[in-house]
Specification:
257 residues; alpha+beta; Beta-Lactamase; 6-stranded antiparallel beta sheet; elongated
């Protein structure tokens, strides 16, 4: 990184230089893994050509193998740390999510105030959490579709299509689960659900109910379900899940009137 001083206005300008291989389609985050594999290959080749190794060479090779192993594991460790870190904030959404189409529909059965609150709640969730699509039901009826949902859900009858698709999953209103990877989605009742795009990385299913105040074990009765689609695996931290559950609690008070 270079620091450039602008004498005209005394502002400091920063120029950041990032090392990259510049290979199309190659994630530069994998560079340490490539270096590690090359390092181990060279160490093994040197060991084979040098014959009987002395104690100093053995120590050097051991250190080299350890460092190469760290390089190979570094990208995976970095991704896991980022996934587990609470409050990592909103990451840029993927430009094109496979099998998804943009949808927006609100039930006409809601009052104007309820529509406004539901619209703002959905906007807040998609804007501030790692969520790209949302489906909401209350008292067995679809209330809202917003964002990236399955390509077959769009159109004027978006809510009805979503209702049928959700009913086919057999999941109840009190369901609370987080399918953090595509494999877990495929092993769940959501595998064939038309609401969930084929490119979805993770899905959170949250009950629309009051927050548990500690007085009762269940935290109140759920009146609906919020289904959140994420474009990446392990996209939501525990902090984001808790925040989205708080939004569900607010919607419970507003939509259950």
């Amino acid at each position: 990184m270079a620091v450039l001083n602008n004498n005209d206005d005394n502002d400091v300008e920063l120029a950041v230089f990032r090392f990259t291989l510049g290979i199309p389609g190659f994630d530069d985050a994998l560079i340490p893994r490539v270096v590690g594999v090359v390092g181990i290959t060279l160490l093994l080749l040197n060991h084979a050509l040098s014959g009987e190794a002395g104690s100093s060479q053995a120590v050097t090779e051991t250190i080299g193998i350890v460092l190469s192993g760290v390089g190979i594991a570094a990208p995976t460790l970095q991704k896991r740390i980022e996934d587990l870190a609470p409050g990592k904030g909103r990451r840029p959404a993927l430009e094109n999510l496979e099998g998804a189409a943009n949808a927006f529909a609100i039930s006409e059965a809601l009052s104007e105030d309820q529509k406004q609150e539901a619209a703002w709640a959905s906007f807040a969730v998609i804007k501030n959490a790692n969520v790209c699509g949302m489906f909401l039901t209350v008292n067995g009826s679809p209330v809202m579709c917003r964002g990236a949902l399955g390509a077959g859900i769009g159109g004027d009858d978006c809510l009805e299509k979503a209702r049928v698709a959700w009913a086919q999953t057999g999941m109840g209103a009190n369901e609370s689960c987080y399918y953090e990877t595509r494999d877990r989605i495929d092993a769940s009742p959501l595998k064939q659900c038309a609401i969930v795009p084929s490119g979805t990385g993770s899905v959170a299913v949250l009950p629309v109910k009051p927050l548990d105040d500690g007085a009762s074990g269940g935290g109140g009765t759920s009146v609906g379900t919020m289904v959140l689609m994420c474009d990446r695996e392990r996209a939501m931290s525990p902090k984001e899940m808790a925040w989205c559950q708080a939004v569900c609690s607010k919607l419970h008070c507003i939509l259950n009137e």
